[in-house]
Design brief:
Layout lengths: L2 H9 L9 H5 L4 H10 L10 H9 L3 H9 L2 H8 L6 H13 L4 H25 L4 H26 L5 H4 E5 L1 H4 L11 E5 L3 H4 L3 H6 L1
Antiparallel strand pairs: 1-2
Helix pairs in contact: 3-5, 4-6, 7-8, 7-9, 8-9
Length: 210
């Protein structure tokens, strides 16, 4: 049994994936892919669709492999939700993750992890459907919008300032406003506050958080 086949068995991938060996061996990154497989925990590719997600992403380069090695659960997460989602769904899932965080530092980690997972999911969908560039831009914009909404909600909750969300609004400018973001876009925001917002938010730390 080859090292590739041994890793497939350990990871729980279907036996049919042995047939992918020639395809993977012809890839310039074969050794790196095999190394990423060895970094995954036992059974990481056992759930439906996980093996397909892994190999489709592993062949795309170092970044995808690094993310999967560092966060193996992202594979099952993408396999379970491969298609486009809505802003409302993104907000609901991200809010759940952030509310479970122990402190603000953990909230930031949850925000980063969610962005990384969703970005990888969007990237994979574009790899599988290269003609969906406009959809990709819209999905990245939705992810940015959801992240901003939840970040404001969490700041209000963590600082015990429930009125915070009513004191100002956030406008997405440029590519975010036009829902034309790409993976390397800078998000331009304008904050519009009520006249008495800074008087009603008395502590400096909350202002810095905004």
């Amino acid at each position: 049994m080859t090292a590739f086949s041994e890793q497939l068995r350990r990871l729980g991938a279907p036996s049919s994936f042995d047939a992918k060996l020639p395809d993977v061996q012809n890839c310039d990154d074969f050794d790196a892919i095999l190394g990423t497989m060895s970094a995954l925990p036992n059974g990481a590719l056992a759930k439906p669709g996980c093996a397909e997600v892994f190999f489709d992403l592993a062949k795309q380069g170092h970044h995808s492999r690094r993310v999967m090695a560092a966060d193996p659960d992202v594979i099952a997460d993408i396999a379970a939700r491969p298609g486009p989602t809505t802003v409302e769904d993104l907000v609901a899932r991200l809010a759940t993750d952030c509310r479970a965080a122990s402190d603000e530092s953990a909230v930031l980690q949850a925000l980063r992890r969610f962005k990384q997972r969703e970005s990888l999911r969007i990237f994979l969908r574009e790899v599988r459907d290269p003609d969906s560039v406009r959809q990709t831009s819209a999905e990245i914009a939705d992810l940015a919008q959801a992240s901003i909404e939840v970040a404001i909600q969490e700041l209000a909750y963590r600082r015990a300032k429930p009125e915070l969300a009513d004191l100002f609004c956030v406008l997405g400018m440029g590519k975010l406003g036009g829902r034309e973001l790409n993976f390397s876009s800078v998000v331009d925001l304008i904050f519009i506050a009520a006249d008495d917002a800074f008087e009603r938010i008395a502590d400096l730390e909350t202002l810095r958080g905004i």
